[in-house]
Design a protein that fits this description.
This protein has 178 residues and is α+β, with helices and mostly antiparallel strands. The chain is built from 6 helices and 8 strands. It is globular, with a radius of gyration of 18 Å. The two termini are 18 Å apart.
Length: 178
């Protein structure tokens, strides 16, 4: 990972990411609070909205609505899921307290089974406070070729890897905190 503002770089292994997520899941499912247990082992009612065609994942705590498009191939759907799964798991490492990791893994799996990729995702998180909720919306665009600007960013990344100061992940993370 690179932090251009601070000119730092660090690495975190996939083994570390997997271990953290295993520990988070183990901890969450052992809690007394049903909402916390859900976060460690989420279960959704999965439906398709008859009017919009969106995939809907409903639970008492989290709801996802996903507008998806067919992937061009089974391989693209698999690669998309693999990238998203690692990204969401890394997010839990980068942002302690991030809670939707295991729920999003279920959504990603369902999309791959349908050989689909998301176009738009709506997430609603219900609060313990009555009638309070948080919503987020993301748009996704799958572009199969690297643009010249993408190639420039890859080249710049190589340069940054050579000149940025390497630091331990914990130090990198501390420097990210406000």
């Amino acid at each position: 990972m690179l932090d251009p503002a601070r000119r730092l770089r660090t690495e975190v292994s996939t083994d570390e990411v997997e271990a953290l997520n295993h520990n988070l899941k183990t901890w969450a499912v052992a809690q007394k609070d049903a909402a916390v247990r859900f976060l460690g082992d989420p279960k959704f009612e999965e439906t398709i909205d008859g009017k919009t065609g969106e995939l809907v994942f409903t639970s008492p705590w989290i709801t996802y609505r996903v507008a998806a498009d067919p992937a061009e191939s089974e391989e693209i759907a698999r690669q998309y899921r693999e990238f998203c799964d690692w990204h969401i798991q890394l997010n839990a490492r980068l942002h302690p307290g991030y809670k939707q990791t295991f729920a999003r893994l279920i959504v990603n799996e369902a999309l791959e089974k349908r050989k689909a990729v998301p176009r738009e995702v709506h997430l609603t998180i219900k609060s313990k406070v009555p009638f309070q909720k948080t919503t987020a919306r993301s748009e996704h665009q799958l572009i199969r070729r690297l643009l010249p600007s993408d190639r420039d960013r890859v080249a710049q990344t190589d340069e940054f890897m050579a000149i940025f100061q390497p630091v331990a992940f914990e130090q990198y993370q501390r420097k990210l905190e406000p």
